[in-house]
C-alpha cells in the first residue's frame, strides 16, 4: 500500500483548493449520450469503472443538449434492476484519517435511493443512509467515517448486516449503489460529479444535515417529542424544545412542562439528532410509512438532569393530572408557566415565569471544550452559571445577567429564511357554476405540505405546513404572488387562525402559539405560548387537528383520539383530552371538555357562535358524522375515548355517506362578494376535495348539501380573502393514505361565476319531501330528479372499521326510491315530491337532484338524518318489496366498467396497482392469489381475514356497492394478474 503523498506524486499533482486536499474529482466527459457508460467516459486517471448488479447493462451516460446547462451524468432510469457503479482506485489508498469526505452532486427522487459504497479487503460496504433526495441538482457531503456502514452484495446490490470492523487503511474502490429498480425519469438517480477531499473545513461541512431533509441546518429550534434511554432509565419529553448548539453536532432539549433542561447530546456526524418518527417527519416528503412511535434521540448522551420541576432534586412534581389508567403526571407544572420562545439574532431564548418572575434562558456550546459538568442553578435574581462546555444565561424581570461564559446580550432578531420567491399562477378554470384557480407553490428546496390558510386584514395570506413552517404570501390575487417563509420549528401544526383583532395563532401538538413580529420585518420572531392547558401524550396520533378563535378571544380546538395502530407501552398513552373538543379561556389557562368520544375530529365555529365538529370513519364510527355541539358534554361514540364510561351515544346531526365525504376535515365560511348565491354559508371541507354547505333552518330539518365542485387535491381547510371574498382552500395527503384526487397536495382559490339556486330548507314527511331554495327558479332553470332520486340506509356502530349499508330490516343494501310526483311550487322557489311508499327513519338520507339551465347542468346531493320519522313496519317493508319486485336481473360483470369504479369507491386510496404498499396491500396479481369468492368476501367482509402486516382498517362495503357495480368491479379485479 502506498502512502497518500506518494500516490499524489505518482498519479496526480498534489492539489489544494482553498485548503482542501483533493484525492480525485470525477466529472464525466462531455460526449454524446450512450448506453452503457464505459471507463472511457471518465476524466480522472485515478479511477477505473465497473458496472455491477442486475441492471448494469443499461447504465447510461446521459446528456440533453436541448436543456440549458444540462450536465453529463450517470443515469439508471432504464436499468432493469439494482446497480452498483464502481470506481476502482489505481492504488490501494489509506483513508483512515477522520476528515475524509466524499462530496458529490446528484439529483435523485422517487423510490430510488443512492448509497455511498467502498471496497476494502475485497469486500464491498455501503452506507445505509441514502444520499438525500431532491428534484434539483444539489451538492452534498458524505463523511467516510461513520457508524453507518453495512455489508453490500455487489451481484444483487442488496445491503446485509452492519459492518463491525472496516479497514479504512486499505480502500481500493469507491462506488454508488442504487438498490431499487428505477422507473424512467420519474423514479431514478442521477450522478453528476463526485470527489474525495481531506480538509477540516470539509469535515465541518460534512457535519451539516443533508439538504432536503425534514430537519434543516438553519432551524433555530424544533418543537418535538423526544424519547431516550440512558443508563437503563427511559426519559420522555412530550412537548420539548430541541436546540442546536452549532458546535460539534451538539444538541440540547428543554421540557416546557417542568421548565427544565432534559439532556445534552452529540448527534451523529451529518445526521439528524433524532429519529424521523413523528407523523410529519416520517412522511417527509416522499417517505412511505405512518408514524407508530415517538422520535428517539440519536447519538451520544452527554448529560441528563433530574425529572423534577426545574431539575431540582428537592422539588417534587406535584401535578394532579395523570394519564388514563396511570398515576404518571402530565401537563404543565402548577408552580411555573412556560411563556414561549423569542429570537436573539437567529438563536432561541426560552422564556418562562416562576412565582410571577420572568426568566429567560439560552444555551450555547463553547468552541473549545466538551461538557464537564452542569452547575445547579439557584434561581435567585442576578444569579447565573456557566462551565467549560455549556453556557446558560437567564434574566430576572427582563434584565439580562450574562453567564460566566460571557454570553452576549440578546441581539436584534434576524430572518431565518430571508429569500422571497415569485411564482406564476395558471389561469382559472370553470368547474360547474364555480371558477377554480390552482395556486403554484414556490420551488424553494423545501416541500410545502400545506394544511391550513388564514388571512391578515390587508389580504396577506399565511399558509401553514405540516412540517412546522409558516409561509407569507403577498399579492396572492395577482398572477405572480410573492412567497416568503416567515416561521419554522412548530410542532406538527394543523391550524392557523387570525383573530378579529389581528393576532396570529397556530395550533401544534404542544400548544396554541401566538406568532409575533417584534421589529416589523415581516418575519415572526416571538413564539408566545397562548395556551398549553390541554394534556399531551407521547402517542403519535395525539395531535390537535383544528382551531377556532371565538369573538371573546377564547379558543376551540379538536384533539385526535385514534389508538388502534398497534402501539404498545409508552406509545399507547391516553389522556382525558384524547378524542375531544375543548374550549380554552382567552387567557389560555383553563381547558373544558365540550364533547368526547371522537376519533379524528375537526372543530368549526360558525359566525353566530355555533360550534360544529366533524369526525372520520373508523372503528365505532360507521360513516362520516357531522355534530352540532349544544348543551352538556355529549359522548359521540368512539369507544376508546369514552373515558367517562357513558352508557349512551349522542347521535350526530347527520351522517354523510363515506364515499361522498371521505374523511371530513375543517370548516370555513363563504363571503357575499365572491358567492352571491352562497353568501355567508358555513362549509364543511372534505379530504376528498369536496365542499358541503351546512344549513340549520329554524323550520325543517338540518341538512347539508354537496357543492357541484371537485378539487384535484385533498382539502383540509379554507379561508376567505378579506377584500375579494374568494375562498382559498388547501390540503395534503401523507404516505399510507393515497387520496382519490390526482394530486397529493394543493392550494386553490374558488369563486362563483354562474348564478344557480341553492337549497335553504328541507322538509321530510312520511310520503313527501319539499326543498325550498334561496330564490325562485327562472324560466330557464329547473330541477331533474336523480336516478335514483332518494337513497335511504342505516349504519351500525361496531368494533369493526366502518360499516356496511343496511336496509330497514337490517339486511345489507340500500332503499332506492323514486317519486310518484315531482313538481315546482307555484312561486317556483320550492320543489315538492310525493311517494307511493312510506319514508321511514334512516341514518343516511341522500336526495339526488340535478339543476339545469340553458348554460349549465350539474348534480347536487342533500344529506340529512330523518329520525323524526317512525321506524319501518313489516307493512312498509312489504310495500317496498312489491315496488322492487321487477328489479332488473344482474348483467355479467364488465372489466371496462369496473375500472373507473375502483377509484369511484375509493379503493385506489388504500390499494395500489403497481406493487406500492399503502394502507392496504397492493392488488397487482390479486387474481392469481384469490378466487372470485375470496375477492367478494374481502370486499363485503374485509375483517374476516387480514393480510399479514396490515391493520384491520378496511370498512365493509356490504350494501355500499350496488350489486351490479360489484359484479363490474370483481370482473376488473380478475384482470389484475
UniProtKB/TrEMBL annotation:
Keyword Protease listed: no
InterPro entries reported in the protein's UniProt record: 6-blade_b-propeller_TolB-like, Cyt_c-like_dom, Cyt_c-like_dom_sf, DUF6797
Keywords: Heme, Iron, Metal-binding
Cross-referenced SUPFAM superfamilies: Calcium-dependent phosphotriesterase, Cytochrome c
Gene Ontology MF terms: electron transfer activity; heme binding; metal ion binding
Domain Cytochrome c positions: 893-977
Matches recorded under PANTHER family: LARGE, MULTIFUNCTIONAL SECRETED PROTEIN, LARGE, MULTIFUNCTIONAL SECRETED PROTEIN-RELATED
The protein's name: Cytochrome c domain-containing protein
Protein source organism: Roseibacillus persicicus
Lineage: Bacteria, Pseudomonadati, Verrucomicrobiota, Verrucomicrobiia, Verrucomicrobiales
Amino acid at each position: 500500500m502506498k502512502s497518500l503523498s506518494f500516490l499524489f506524486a505518482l498519479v496526480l499533482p498534489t492539489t489544494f483548493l482553498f485548503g482542501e486536499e483533493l484525492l480525485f474529482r470525477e466529472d464525466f466527459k462531455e460526449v454524446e449520450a450512450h448506453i452503457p457508460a464505459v471507463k472511457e467516459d471518465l476524466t480522472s486517471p485515478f479511477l477505473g469503472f465497473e458496472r455491477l448488479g442486475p441492471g448494469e447493462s443499461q447504465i447510461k451516460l446521459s446528456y440533453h443538449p436541448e436543456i440549458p446547462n444540462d450536465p453529463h451524468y450517470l443515469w439508471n432510469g432504464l436499468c432493469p434492476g439494482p446497480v452498483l457503479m464502481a470506481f476502482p482506485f489505481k492504488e490501494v489508498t489509506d483513508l483512515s484519517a477522520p476528515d475524509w469526505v466524499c462530496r458529490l452532486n446528484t439529483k435523485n427522487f422517487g423510490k430510488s435511493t443512492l448509497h455511498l459504497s467502498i471496497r476494502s479487503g475485497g469486500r464491498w460496504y455501503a452506507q445505509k443512509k441514502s444520499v438525500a433526495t431532491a428534484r434539483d441538482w444539489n451538492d452534498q457531503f458524505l463523511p467516510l467515517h461513520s457508524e453507518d456502514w453495512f455489508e453490500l452484495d455487489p451481484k444483487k446490490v442488496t445491503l446485509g448486516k452492519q459492518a463491525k470492523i472496516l479497514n479504512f487503511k486499505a480502500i481500493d474502490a469507491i462506488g454508488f449503489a442504487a438498490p431499487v429498480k428505477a422507473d424512467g425519469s420519474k423514479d431514478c438517480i442521477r450522478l453528476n460529479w463526485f470527489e474525495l477531499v481531506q480538509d477540516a473545513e470539509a469535515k465541518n461541512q460534512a457535519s451539516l444535515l443533508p439538504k432536503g431533509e425534514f430537519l434543516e441546518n438553519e432551524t433555530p429550534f424544533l418543537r418535538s417529542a423526544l424519547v431516550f434511554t440512558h443508563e437503563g432509565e427511559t426519559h420522555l419529553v412530550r412537548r420539548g424544545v430541541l436546540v442546536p448548539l452549532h458546535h460539534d453536532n451538539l444538541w440540547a432539549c428543554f421540557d416546557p412542562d417542568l421548565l427544565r433542561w432534559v439532556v445534552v447530546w452529540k448527534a451523529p456526524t451529518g445526521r439528524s439528532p433524532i429519529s424521523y418518527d413523528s407523523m410529519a417527519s416520517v412522511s417527509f416528503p416522499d417517505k412511505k410509512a405512518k408514524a407508530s412511535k415517538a422520535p428517539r434521540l440519536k447519538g451520544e448522551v452527554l448529560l441528563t438532569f433530574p425529572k423534577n420541576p426545574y431539575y431540582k432534586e428537592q422539588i417534587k412534581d406535584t401535578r394532579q393530572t395523570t394519564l388514563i389508567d396511570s398515576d404518571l403526571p402530565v401537563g404543565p407544572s402548577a408552580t411555573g408557566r412556560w411563556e414561549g420562545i423569542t429570537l436573539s439574532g437567529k438563536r432561541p431564548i426560552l422564556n418562562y415565569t416562576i412565582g410571577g418572575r420572568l426568566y429567560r434562558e439560552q444555551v450555547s456550546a463553547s468552541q473549545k471544550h466538551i461538557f464537564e459538568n452542569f452547575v445547579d442553578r439557584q434561581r435567585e435574581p442576578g444569579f447565573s452559571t456557566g462551565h467549560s462546555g455549556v453556557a446558560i444565561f437567564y434574566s430576572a424581570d427582563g434584565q439580562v445577567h450574562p453567564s460566566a461564559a460571557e454570553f452576549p446580550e440578546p441581539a436584534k432578531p434576524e430572518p431565518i429564511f430571508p429569500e422571497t420567491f415569485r411564482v406564476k399562477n395558471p389561469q382559472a378554470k370553470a368547474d360547474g357554476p364555480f371558477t377554480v384557480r390552482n395556486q403554484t407553490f414556490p420551488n424553494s428546496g423545501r416541500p410545502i405540505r400545506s394544511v391550513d390558510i388564514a388571512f391578515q386584514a390587508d389580504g396577506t395570506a399565511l399558509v401553514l405546513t405540516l412540517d412546522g413552517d409558516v409561509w407569507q404570501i403577498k399579492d396572492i390575487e395577482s398572477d405572480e404572488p410573492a412567497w416568503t417563509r416567515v416561521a419554522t420549528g412548530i410542532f406538527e401544526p394543523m391550524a392557523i387562525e387570525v383573530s378579529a383583532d389581528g393576532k396570529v395563532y397556530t395550533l401544534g401538538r404542544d400548544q396554541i402559539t401566538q406568532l409575533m413580529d417584534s421589529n416589523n420585518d415581516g418575519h415572526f420572531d416571538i413564539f408566545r405560548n397562548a395556551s398549553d392547558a390541554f394534556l399531551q401524550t407521547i402517542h403519535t396520533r395525539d395531535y390537535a387537528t383544528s382551531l377556532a378563535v371565538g369573538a371573546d378571544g377564547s379558543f376551540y380546538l379538536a384533539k385526535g383520539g385514534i389508538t388502534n395502530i398497534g402501539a404498545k407501552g409508552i406509545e399507547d398513552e391516553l389522556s382525558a383530552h384524547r378524542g375531544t373538543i375543548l374550549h380554552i379561556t382567552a387567557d389560555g389557562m383553563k381547558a373544558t371538555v365540550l364533547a368526547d368520544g371522537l376519533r379524528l375530529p375537526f372543530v368549526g365555529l360558525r359566525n353566530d357562535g355555533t360550534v360544529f365538529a366533524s369526525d372520520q370513519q373508523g372503528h365505532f364510527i360507521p360513516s362520516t358524522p357531522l355534530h352540532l355541539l349544544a348543551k352538556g358534554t355529549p359522548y359521540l361514540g368512539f369507544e376508546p375515548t369514552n373515558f367517562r364510561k357513558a352508557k349512551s351515544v349522542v347521535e350526530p346531526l347527520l351522517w354523510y355517506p363515506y364515499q361522498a365525504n371521505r374523511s371530513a376535515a375543517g370548516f370555513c365560511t363563504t363571503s357575499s362578494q365572491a358567492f352571491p348565491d352562497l353568501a355567508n354559508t358555513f362549509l364543511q371541507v372534505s379530504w376528498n376535495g369536496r365542499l358541503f354547505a351546512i344549513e340549520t333552518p329554524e323550520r325543517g330539518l338540518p341538512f347539508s348539501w354537496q357543492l357541484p365542485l371537485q378539487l384535484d387535491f385533498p382539502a383540509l381547510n379554507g379561508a376567505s380573502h378579506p377584500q375579494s371574498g374568494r375562498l382559498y382552500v388547501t390540503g395534503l395527503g401523507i404516505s399510507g393514505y393515497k387520496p382519490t384526487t390526482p394530486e397529493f397536495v394543493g392550494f386553490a382559490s374558488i369563486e362563483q361565476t354562474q348564478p344557480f339556486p341553492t337549497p335553504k330548507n328541507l322538509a321530510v314527511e312520511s310520503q313527501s319531501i319539499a326543498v325550498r331554495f334561496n330564490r325562485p327558479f327562472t324560466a330557464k332553470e329547473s330541477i331533474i330528479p336523480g336516478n335514483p332520486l332518494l337513497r335511504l340506509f342505516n349504519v351500525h356502530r361496531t368494533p369493526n372499521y366502518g360499516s356496511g349499508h343496511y336496509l330497514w330490516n337490517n339486511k345489507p343494501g340500500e332503499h332506492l326510491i323514486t317519486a310518484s310526483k315531482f313538481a315546482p311550487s307555484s312561486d317556483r322557489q320550492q320543489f315538492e315530491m310525493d311517494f307511493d311508499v312510506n319514508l321511514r327513519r334512516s341514518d343516511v338520507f341522500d336526495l339526488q337532484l340535478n339543476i339545469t339551465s340553458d348554460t349549465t347542468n350539474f348534480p347536487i346531493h342533500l344529506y340529512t338524518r330523518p329520525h323524526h320519522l317512525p321506524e319501518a313496519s313489516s307493512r312498509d317493508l312489504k310495500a317496498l318489496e312489491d315496488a322492487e319486485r321487477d328489479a332488473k336481473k344482474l348483467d355479467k360483470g364488465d372489466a371496462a366498467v369496473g375500472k373507473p369504479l375502483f377509484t369511484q369507491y375509493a379503493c385506489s386510496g388504500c390499494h395500489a396497482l403497481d406493487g406500492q404498499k399503502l394502507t392496504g396491500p397492493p392488488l397487482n396479481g390479486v387474481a392469481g392469489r384469490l378466487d372470485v369468492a375470496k375477492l367478494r368476501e374481502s370486499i363485503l367482509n374485509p375483517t374476516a381475514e387480514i393480510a399479514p402486516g396490515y391493520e384491520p382498517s378496511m370498512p365493509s362495503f356490504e350494501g355500499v356497492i350496488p350489486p351490479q357495480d360489484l359484479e363490474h368491479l370483481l370482473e376488473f379485479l380478475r384482470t389484475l394478474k
